[in-house]
Write a structure and sequence with these properties.
Elements lengths: L1 H27 L6 H15 L6 E2 L4 H29 L6 H15 L5 E2 L1
Antiparallel strand pairs: 1-2
Helix pairs in contact: 1-2, 3-4
Length: 119
């Protein structure tokens, strides 16, 4: 399902979800202090464009915790709510369940992206 799933995902929802990460990254990169956070957003945009076949491992240290707190306050909640809402809509049909599960994976990642590694 990896290649076909990623292709369908990109056409029917991945482009929009990836662009939301890119927009968040651009907004963070406006300030010099936000550039590291913006760079992380661009990495997660790549995952959001093609999520099938990839897993996310969570970890991190004190710097990740501070970045996650700032992220949660300024950008995380709106992105996570959007991904969760789309996940719920996609899970209404049997065909959409795999895509809804990917949206829920991205919603979890949208809440605390720092310290997360994509494999």
């Amino acid at each position: 399902m990896g290649c076909l799933g990623n292709l369908l995902w990109f056409i029917f929802g991945g482009l929009a979800s990836g662009l939301s990460w890119v927009l968040a990254g651009l907004l963070w990169c406006i300030t010099i202090i936000g550039i590291p956070i913006g760079k992380q957003c661009f990495k997660l945009a790549k995952l959001s464009f093609f999520p099938f076949g990839k897993t996310v491992e969570y970890g991190g240290g004190p710097v990740s915790l501070i970045a996650n707190i700032l992220w949660l306050i300024f950008s995380g909640i709106p992105l996570a709510m959007g991904f969760a809402a789309w996940g719920a809509v996609l899970c209404v049909t049997i065909i959409g369940i795999p895509f809804g599960m990917q949206m829920f994976k991205l919603a979890k990642l949208a809440l605390m992206p720092f310290g997360a590694k994509v494999k």
